[in-house]
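Hey, sorry to bother you again with one of my protein questions. A protein chain has come my way and I'm curious about its shape. I'm sending you its amino acid sequence along with the backbone structure tokens. I owe you a coffee for this, so here goes:
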Amino acid sequence: MKALILTAILAVSLLVSCNTKTKETENNTTEASANSTELFACPMHPEVTGKKGEKCSKCGMELTEPVTSKKMEDVKSTETKTDVTTVTQADYTTDIIISYINLKNRLVNDDSKGAADKGKVLLASFERFDTKTLDAKQKKEYLDIAEDAKEHAEHIGDNAGKIDHQREHFATLSKDINDLIKMFGTKQKLYQDHCPMYDEGKGAIWISETKEIKNPFYGSQMLTCGSVKKTL
């Protein structure tokens, strides 16, 4: 009798264990399926969606923002009504400023190769700017700034390993970025910093996203040389 009871208990235990594993398998399968179909959006262009880590077709940034079903409905509704994505002049300006700051930070870290890579990204940011968003006067002023800035960004991009040369071009590039911000403004708080020692004491400015001084003209040699001249 005891043997019969033990056999029954064992059978029930095996059945429960089997059912538990089946449910776990189903849950894992469902979760994997959900992850494989989950969409992510570009932080700068939320209308561009795809798998996590893919590149945005407009700015090249990775798709990192999870897209909810509600967001997808909104995007589809907008596309159906207009079929056109509106990118403003402020978006293009922000794109350029972000690329410039990334370049500046590579020079702060004495990273010549990284600066070259970011110089090429900055050049692409200027190339993406759609001048159709500007009136005739703005277009002329922008093209004057952009023509000079692209030349310096290109030099920085083509001279990995020659950080002194890159910094020479960065000095003039920073003036161009400062002029761009004067013209269009900025969505974020920025600082115009000044290094009094650069270029044999003639000095040079740069634009920073932080109030803390980190000098891109000398890097680790004189990291804190300089001062904040004004808030932009």
